[in-house]
Amino acid sequence: MSTTTPNRPPATGGAPAGGVPTRVDRPIGQRLLARPELGALIAAVVIFGFFFAIAPSLRSMASISTVLYEASVVGIPAVAVGLLMIGGEFDLSAGVATISTGLFTSMICYQLSLNMWVGTFLSLLLALVIGFVNGYLVVKTQIPSFLITLGTYFILWGVNLGVTKLVTGSVATVNTSDIEGFSSLNTIFAAEIPFFGTTLKITVLWWILFVLIAAWTLQRTRIGNWIFAVGGNPASARAVGVPVDKVKIGLFMGVTVLCWFYGMHRVYGFNGVIQAGEGVGQEFFYIIAVVVGGTLLTGGFGSAFGIAIGCLILAMARLGIVYAGWDPNWFRAFLGVMLLLAVMVNLYVKKVTSSRRLS
Amino acid sequence: MSSRARRGVRIAGVLVTALALAACSSTGGAQTQTTAASQPAGGGGTSGTPEFTIAMVTHETPGDTFWDKIKSGANAAAARYNIELKYSNDPQAAAQAQLIQTAVDSKVDGIATTLVTPDALSGAVKAATDAGIPLVGFNSGISEYKELGALMYFGSDETIAGNTVGEKITEAGAKHPLCVIQAEGSVALEARCAGVKDKAPNTENLQVNGADIASVTSTIQAKLAQDPTIDYVVTLGAPIAVAALQSKQQANSSAKVVTFDLNTEAIKAIQDGGIEFAVDQQPYLQGYLSVESLYLYLTNGNDIGGGQAVLTGPSIVDKSNIDAIAKYAANNTR
Question: Which positions 203-222 of B are in contact with A (Cβ < 8 Å)?
């Protein structure tokens, strides 16, 4: 996207930044196409309608609440992974990083008999450090983030296993639910809220909050413009004074912070017991949700609501198959098809919107 | 890093340490516990240079508590018989075959291996027997170990174990059990559920994502909501059983939970009555016997099992015997 002038705020959230002075003249169809969440929204409505029709057990508040919970546990890390991808980078270490923070909290609190609040705070620092290292290495070495985070993915995976074994003598952490601070943190990270006669996990509310913050940041703040700019064209962004390196490092740190958040849910929702081998492969679900939600893999295009819809699609598909009583082995095949479709739709949208700009 | 930033980091470090010292919990944690986490039982341990070197090769996916117990047993036997144990693992069949070949190449005195993918491992097993290295199978491969040329076998028969569960829950009145599979494409896990189905024909399988326990709970919850007639949930690993208890509570289901394998959480749940019973294949014993049998073969020509596979399971753990077993589980040996 060499024609963009990234310092100019995009008029609508996800549209490729700037360069369209006569935007009001564009037909409505094209304006809609420029919204990254459109394809995902249609898919989500179709999938929901489909499962709603064929799976009677989905038609209850309790089932909706379960689907929202499933969407939120993917959605919390995926929001940040999505912002990072709009910023043109990629994080393969996000799946194991969620477990790293959880293991760290659980182990340090148990072994040192620390108050859980302290362990939770320390693991937030750890998350920030991991994110900073990822980002710093990417911007300083200019090595593609795919490779850098592939490295940290394996490092964290190995450290998760090695350290857990070293510290606990086993490859799982022990129950920490009787340690001081656990119950108050359980309320923050894993509370259950009454919801139309059933209960809703608090992660759903946190997820919605994070999506709103991300949407606001992308559309209404200077940082949002910077994120689109560094993803669209880092060289010209730098030329007009966008602090490209800081933005990218910040995005990587955002990912690990939300990974930490999910990690804490994992600790406080499940008595602090975590097997060290968990989390591997979860990063793919985050990336798929982001891409299905209309974000371009090449950066510079996407939206927070789109990502949220992508997560809903994932959750509806995974649980819809169960509610329909089908063989869930097909879930991954379904995801693959969704991903390919999304990529093709995105490519088409990009072509239409950028050819319009040139004319 | 600027000197200001460096000072900042140092100050933060000091603050964190101070905070940590000030913020210890007065409840829970390691310091209030009396037993150490892992004390291998039965390990006498003789000193001096090891008499034999034995390679143990498994299909362990790293980070699963189950394999800890196998290793714990193998280490205990190795320590008792003054054996140097070389442990290696790879979940992929071709890579596991390569590890067996590596053990053959390094001329170990004996090999103990899981035979989870017999066809893929047969070449490597043959290489070992051709080289005159005694090889025993454990954990998986009960029906194939003989034709592959393994001397002995220690483990549970997944079908028999599944049958045991199926019989027990049918006796208890199960009408519509759910069998939860936490890893795709695992022959052993599928065999367990098939074994359950043999004896409880209405059994239905459910695939969950074992890499994410939060997702496991929502999937089981969804299934329980979809089909309220499910009265038993059979899980194939202890962590999944603990997750199933949560799903059940959230789905307001009265289904009973039974499981394969044990961990400390599951044992607590059996004591509390949350889990009805667990089928234990005694992984500690599998690891221990594999090493011990090779020692006895090498030093005394023994054949444990007398030409038959030695079953380490299914051993049933329920409220009646849990208290005796709990203390061994705390030591990671059961």
Answer: 205-209, 211-215, 218-219, 221-222
CB-CB under 8 Å, A113 with B31: yes
Q: What is the ipTM metric for this complex?
A: 0.74
Quick: pLDDT tens for A74-119. Answer: 999 999 999 999 999 999 999 999 999 999 999 999 999 999 999 9
Mean pLDDT on A167-174 = 84
CB A71 within 8 A of CB A315: yes
Q: Which of B29, B207, B332 sits opposite A113 (nearest CB)?
A: B29
What is the pLDDT at residue B16?
A: 58
pLDDT tens by residue, B45-81:
455 677 899 999 999 887 778 888 899 999 999 999 9
**Cβ under 8 Å to B: A residues 74-103:** 74, 95
DSSP string, A194-228: EETTEEEEHHHHHHHHHHHHHHHHHHHSHHHHHHH
**A175 in contact with chain B, both atoms CB, cutoff 8 A:** yes
Domain borders along chain B are: 3-156+282-313, 158-280
Residues 6+ apart with CB under 8 A from A294: A14, A35, A36, A37, A38, A39, A40, A301, A302, A303, A306, A309, A310, A342, A345, A346, A349
Q: A56-350 is classed in which CATH architecture?
A: Orthogonal Bundle (1.10)
Q: B143 and chain A: CB distance < 8 Å anywhere?
A: no
User: Is the Cα torsion angle B314, B320, B324, B325 positive or negative in sign?
Assistant: positive
The structural domains of chain A, with segments of one domain joined by +, span: 56-350
User: Which residues of chain A does B37 touch, with a Cβ-Cβ cutoff of 8 Å?
Assistant: 168-170, 174
From B32, B37, B184, residue closest to A168, measured CB to CB: B37
* A5 interface with B at CB cutoff 8 Å: no
Residue A22 has pLDDT above 70, yes or no: no
pTM: 0.80
Count H helices, E strands: chain A?
14, 2
- A56: its two tokens: 């009677």
C-alpha to C-alpha distance for A248 and A230, rounded to whole angstroms: 8
Q: In which band, very low, low, confident or very high, does the pLDDT at B14 lie, cut at 50, 70 and 90?
A: low
Question: Is residue A246 within 8 angstroms of chain B, CB to CB?
Answer: no
CA distance A187 to B8: 33
- Is the CB of A111 inside 8 Å of chain B's CB atoms? yes
Q: Give chain B positions within 8 Å (CB) of A268.
A: none
Minimum Cα–Cα distance from B39: chain A residue:
A169
Of A231-245, B176-190, B218-232, minimum mean pLDDT range: B176-190
Chain centroid to Cα A48, Å, comes to 21
Superfamily of structural domain B3-156+282-313: Response regulator (3.40.50.2300)
B28 with A112: Cβ contact below 8 A: no
Is CATH 3.40.50.2300 correct for B158-280? yes
